[in-house]
Design brief:
This protein has 220 residues and is mainly alpha-helical. The chain has one domain. The protein is 66% helix and 9% strand. The protein has six helices and three strands. A three-stranded parallel sheet has the order 1-2-3.
């Protein structure tokens, strides 16, 4: 019976070397493919490039450093610099936006928490007024019930923002930081395919069972 397919383990095994460096290869037949055709300054990459990088890095564990292998013939130093700067600028802006959103979530949670505590105080005052007996108990009970439910809604919303929304946003920020800190290697096609061939030979020497991996994947 095929073993259960472990996606994370498979990605690490295939894309991460012994130095815990994950490699993302990207091949360009022409350097014009790199940059956004609507950007006359050629300082931003094609949207397809960012989509590709996001997909390749999506499941990589956050503790691994990423290296982007850019494969293209006849690429000059200026184009190399513009490519790496464009990647850092793109993901740097994402980190900046993530930090703004994190601050907004913290403010939202604080405000919701404050309102929740305020309604809890109103519930306490309602109970106190009820104990004095100066007001009919039925209106007080209804008011206390409304304040209790409303207070819990505010408190739960504050907890949800801090524990779930903030956690998801922190994960996205860490992923963007991982891409921002990526290293860059520029190679020609001949150099890249030579290295790839050597790595494939090493895989064969390790007796990796590709058929078993495929069957495990299809079994899911």
């Amino acid at each position: 019976m095929p073993k259960k397919f472990d996606a994370i383990n498979y990605l690490v095994k295939k894309y991460v070397d012994d130095e815990e460096l994950a490699t993302i290869p990207i091949i360009f037949k022409n350097t014009d493919e790199m940059f956004n055709k609507y950007d006359p300054t050629k300082t931003s990459l094609s949207p397809e490039v960012y989509t590709y990088l996001d997909k390749c890095s999506y499941n990589l564990p956050i503790n691994y450093k990423i290296r982007i292998d850019v494969v293209s013939n006849n690429i000059d130093k200026e184009t190399k610099n513009r490519f790496s700067d464009a990647v850092k600028h793109h993901y740097g802006l994402k980190v900046f936006d993530n930090n703004i959103d994190l601050k907004a979530i913290s403010r939202k949670a604080n405000i919701l928490g404050a309102f929740g505590l305020l309604f809890v105080l109103f519930v306490y005052l309602g109970d106190h007024a009820k104990s004095l007996g100066g007001i009919p108990s039925t209106p007080i009970n209804v008011l206390i019930e409304i304040l209790t439910v409303t207070g819990w809604v505010f408190v739960w919303s504050a907890i949800e923002s801090m524990l779930f929304d903030r956690k998801d946003l922190l994960t996205r920020r860490n992923e963007n930081m991982q891409m921002f800190n990526a290293e860059f290697i520029f190679e020609t096609e001949d150099e890249y395919y030579k290295i790839l061939e050597e790595e494939q030979k090493e895989d064969v020497e390790k007796n990796e069972d590709y058929q078993e991996i495929m069957e495990s994947f299809l079994d899911q």
